[in-house]
Design brief:
By secondary structure, the chain is mostly helical. It is built from six helices and two strands. The protein has a two-stranded antiparallel sheet. Helix 1 (9-38) packs parallel to helix 3 (72-89) and helix 2 (53-70) crosses helix 6. The longest helix is centred in the first third of the chain and has 30 residues, at 9-38. The relative contact order is 0.17.
């Protein structure tokens, strides 16, 4: 078995994947904990959203970064781990709603982010289009499913604007970071297509 050389393309993917995985797990758990303890909070523009919305927004973009680095299978494994840990610190009803919402939005993300991201480079226009499209679809679906299960169908429309505002903040930060990294680095990461770490 060939050892992974420090500084190699594979080593870079593993490092990026580990970082994105840690962010995904942390943000999912924090989002569920915050919503369980604080309910709804102001997010600007006169709108309210669940307290975990900001963290959930970062979770949505972290999953895309994780998929790029190590593929779909590891991303799904990480998401399941995050969902499981959420039950330790959150209201079980909130944790269940979150797990279902992330799973549904992730399945749709495979049909949106994955094909657009293919053949793009971090920071380019195609990558940005993938992030934006994925963010919109993920945020809307995640909001409908999560709010519907956690607080009831009647709460979906009143909460939609605030939820989208909170998650948009995270998407904007991710776009800025991605663009900055692309400008600063000469070696850029292409997405995985087979779900495995490859050179």
């Amino acid at each position: 078995m060939t050892a992974v050389q420090p500084g190699s393309r594979v080593a870079t993917r593993i490092a990026v994947g580990a970082a994105a995985g840690a962010v995904l797990i942390t943000t999912v758990v924090v989002a569920n904990w915050a919503t369980s303890h604080f309910g709804f909070i102001p997010v600007g523009f006169g709108q309210m959203a669940t307290a975990g919305t900001f963290a959930a927004g970062f979770a949505l973009v972290a999953r895309d970064a994780l998929q790029d680095a190590v593929g779909k299978r590891w991303m799904l494994v990480t998401l399941l781990l995050a969902a499981g840990l959420s039950y330790l610190v959150s209201d079980p009803h909130i944790a269940t709603a979150s797990a279902v919402a992330f799973l549904v939005s992730e399945l749709l993300d495979f049909a949106v982010y994955t094909p657009i991201r293919h053949h793009s480079r971090l920071g380019d226009s195609r990558w940005a289009a993938a992030v934006i499209a994925s963010g919109v679809v993920g945020a809307v679906v995640d909001t409908i499913v999560f709010i519907g299960i956690a607080f009831g169908a009647a709460a979906v429309l009143p909460a939609m604007a605030g939820q989208l505002i909170g998650k948009t903040y995270a998407a904007i930060v991710y776009l800025l970071i991605g663009r900055a990294v692309a400008v600063c680095c000469t070696s850029q990461i292409r997405p995985e297509t087979d779900g495995c770490v490859t050179p």
